[in-house]
Specification:
It contains 10 helices and no strands. It is an all-alpha fold. The relative contact order is 0.11.
């Protein structure tokens, strides 16, 4: 068992993973998270479904590995400082309402470590960069972004995953009115 036997096996494994991810991206995009199945993804990749489970552990793990996520955050440096909280609440409501992949990732993150890590990185990298972009004190940027994430993810969880009736029934404008001041304080208030 030298390098020559290990290298082809590793290349075969990489090719199988790539085929699974390619098939998963296409299937999740075409069918959505809920309707996509491991069996259909495996068929698209021309492999046995057990191989998908071997590499990714679950549908949630596969989704977390396959999905491309971009929060598409606005340039906060271009937003009037007193409108930052409002801007972010409106933005996140629009993203959650219009993109089932973010809700699927949040659902998966609650039970799958790979999806949780993907969500952590998504919010840590993209949100922290947006918060840093409007000139916060670098010493508090990560904390401010983390607090904004806690509020927006909590809203998404209660509205789109748990579907808590009082939160589901609120009009987007009412949510903006209630939540924007909290985000504003997280972004610009004194620690």
């Amino acid at each position: 068992m030298g390098m020559t036997e290990t290298a082809p096996r590793a290349r075969r494994s990489d090719a199988t993973r790539a085929a699974i991810l390619r098939a998963a991206r296409e299937r999740f995009a075409a069918d959505g998270y809920e309707r996509a199945t491991i069996r259909a993804i495996a068929a698209d990749a021309h492999i046995d479904p057990s191989m998908v489970m071997r590499y990714y552990g679950s549908k949630e793990g596969l989704f977390a590995a396959a999905a491309e996520f971009d929060l598409r955050l606005p340039d906060l440096a271009a937003v009037p400082p007193d409108r930052l909280g409002e801007t972010l609440v409106r933005h996140f409501l629009a993203r959650w309402e219009g993109d089932e992949t973010l809700a699927a990732l949040l659902r998966a993150a609650s039970t799958n470590p790979g999806a949780a890590e993907r969500m952590r990185l998504l919010f840590a990298d993209q949100l922290a960069a947006a918060v840093a972009g409007f000139g916060t004190d670098p010493a508090t940027t990560a904390r401010r972004a983390g607090l904004v994430a806690s509020q927006t993810l909590g809203l998404a969880f209660t509205r789109y995953i748990v579907r808590l009736p009082p939160v589901v029934e609120m009009a987007p404008e009412d949510l903006v009115e209630w939540i924007a001041p909290t985000l504003q304080r997280y972004l610009t208030g004194r620690p």
